[in-house]
Design a protein that fits this description.
There is one protein chain. This protein has one domain: Porin (Beta Barrel), CATH 2.40.160.20. The chain is built from no helices and 6 strands. It has strands at 2-12, 15-35, 40-59, 62-84, 87-96, 101-110.
């Protein structure tokens, strides 16, 4: 997952200030699937995410650099509604534990 690079320039008590951030993450998880019916499947997800973030702050010519990296537990729950044998609609909630990141997604699933 690439969080991208963001930057902003503001006026901080009359002094120009700029912030530039960058974040990336890589995860690996196991997925347990419980078929409820031919069309409905529930699943649980458990794994780890390794992430890194950096921020550069410049205020009035002074530069500060901060960053963090680490490995966190990730877990989630979801469901797939199969509208055809190879095609389904998937909804999932996922949480990265200590990073205070929570995600809700809805998508289309195709099985090869």
């Amino acid at each position: 997952m690439n969080g991208g690079e963001y930057s902003a320039t503001v006026n901080f008590f009359g002094t120009p200030a700029s912030v530039k951030t960058d974040a990336t993450a890589f995860g690996l998880a196991a997925l347990g699937i419980l078929p409820v019916s031919e069309q409905l499947e529930l699943f649980g997800k458990l794994g780890f995410v390794n992430g890194e973030s950096d921020a550069d702050v410049i205020i009035g010519g002074s530069r500060f650099t901060v960053g963090d990296s680490g490995t966190e537990l990730t877990f989630g729950l979801g469901a797939v509604y199969n509208v055809a044998p190879r095609f389904g609609i998937r909804a999932e909630w996922e949480n990265i534990d200590d990073a205070d990141i929570s995600m809700l997604s809805v998508g289309i699933q195709y099985r090869f």
